[in-house]
Design a protein that fits this description.
Layout: H1 26-37, E1 48-52, H2 58-65, E2 70-74, H3 78-91, E3 97-100, H4 104-113, E4 118-123, H5 130-143, E5 146-157, E6 165-166, E7 169-177, E8 180-187
Parallel strand pairs: 1-2, 1-4, 2-3, 4-5
Antiparallel strand pairs: 5-8, 6-7, 7-8
Length: about 190
């Protein structure tokens, strides 16, 4: 794995072996950021991100590389959290991020209580855990964690559909690539 573009372009990102972490593939990550900003690297300058079920931290690191102002990584696995710290350290990233070693369902209410919002919220739970998708998307809608024009991006298996509308979140785009897909949501007005 590697960083696709920006400040840390072509730099490697380490991963864990086994079934517990399924990092967002380089090609899918590239497609994600192409949808969000195309070739305009300035498009993400200063934005805030929540990288939920962060795993290796690849999506949040890519956002930092492309100019994001702050990324909050949320990861409950101690082993994965150490890997995120290792990846950030190996790239020389010392600020502009926060790592919460909590279950997503504990972290989101804490972030909401603190009045935190994000321009982009990336959600990547285990593909097989379909109930988690509904639960986390509903919680994001309830807790108002997306900024006014914020977007929620959900990575999921191509054969699974997290839904067109979940509470106040409305899907506006779906991108499929290989066995994976990305669903892009924003708050319905």
């Amino acid at each position: 794995m590697r960083v696709i573009a920006g400040t840390y372009r072509r730099r490697p990102i380490q991963s864990l072996h086994g079934e517990h972490i399924r990092p967002t593939a380089d090609r899918l990550r590239e497609s994600l950021f192409n949808v969000l900003c195309g070739r305009n690297l300035e498009a993400l300058a200063g934005t805030s991100w929540f990288d939920l079920f962060a795993g290796t931290g690849a999506v949040g690191i890519e956002a930092i590389s492309r100019g994001a102002g702050h990324v909050t990584f949320v990861e409950s696995s101690a082993e994965a959290a150490r890997l995120i710290e290792k990846n950030l350290s190996s790239l020389g990233i010392r600020n502009g991020y926060e790592l919460l070693r909590l279950e997503v369902f504990r972290a989101l209410p804490q972030l909401a209580k603190a009045g935190r919002t994000a321009d982009f919220i990336f959600v990547d739970p285990p593909y097989r855990d379909h109930a988690t998708y509904s639960k986390v998307i509903a919680l994001l809608s309830e807790q108002k964690l997306a900024a006014e024009q914020g977007r929620v991006i959900v990575e999921h298996a191509r054969k699974f559909d997290p839904g067109e509308t979940v509470d106040r979140l409305q899907r506006y785009r779906k991108l499929q690539q290989g066995d994976s897909a990305l669903s892009f949501y924003r708050m319905a007005m």
